[in-house]
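Researcher: Let's walk through a ligand-bound prediction step by step. First, I give you the protein sequence. Second, the SMILES string for zinc ion. Third, you return the three-dimensional complex as structure tokens. Ready?
Model: Ready.
Researcher: Here are steps one and two:
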Amino acid sequence: MWSNDEFLGDGEERAASCLELFATVPGAKDWQKKLAELSKTTVLPAASELTLSAFSLIRGGDLFERTGAKIAKTPASLLETYADKQLRLVKNGAAKEEQEAAMRGVLRVLRGNAALVKRMLIAKPVSVVIIPKDHDYRPYGFPRNTNPNAAGIFWNSAKTDVALLGLREELILEKAHLMVHEMTHAVHFLAFTKKEREDIDRFLLPVYRNRRWVDEAVAIYAERAFGARYAEEELRQPDLYGKTRRDWNDQQVFSKFIAELMRP
Ligand SMILES: [Zn+2]
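Model: Step three, the predicted complex:
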């Protein structure tokens, strides 16, 4: 059986590289130039293009508070620009079918909300690393505390310029939710501001008790939002992975948050 426990024992902790979009410090607005360049426009984007209205749902305010603005679907050209400039596929000999499914799978997470892809365009780049059957993650740049049997891994360290998104070759075609899970970690760790991450912690920590499980819960809620089809054993897992997958329903506030955020 495949494990989801991504890290074991002690070691460097997975780090967040937060975006500082709304800061007033010098240089904080460089993202506008970068984004304009990448989108091939001379008009500097407004901060409102990166606003994530979903956060109003978990900020303890009115649950029904909505901005009224319709969320813009991501234009295909912008998604292509992102894949081209910010995603690198490390194939490691995988077949074309797996390569394409891996890329399609991770990009699905950004397809519903243009603000997310714009944020990922100015965030840290990601290497999608296909791990060959029966291989360990560690020779491919993942840290020593990586669980060698994990189905997928998202790894980010403050010491590197690129984050890593590892996918087990033999599971790519079988488990569509694997790509959603790991790419949601990428969004959570790279595309949110510090304040937004704190908002999520404040909302989920009373239930999940620790940081690591908060991170996993965010990714599992996304799996479900994108219609994950689980194997029986994944639902029966005795840990919080199994419990979160089993207990999820679309009426929970956090389910509505993810639905509003990602528009699956
Ligand atoms: Zn995870």
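Researcher: And what stands out?
Model: Strands lie at 87-90, 126-131, 152-155, 163-168. The chain is about 45% helix and 10% strand.
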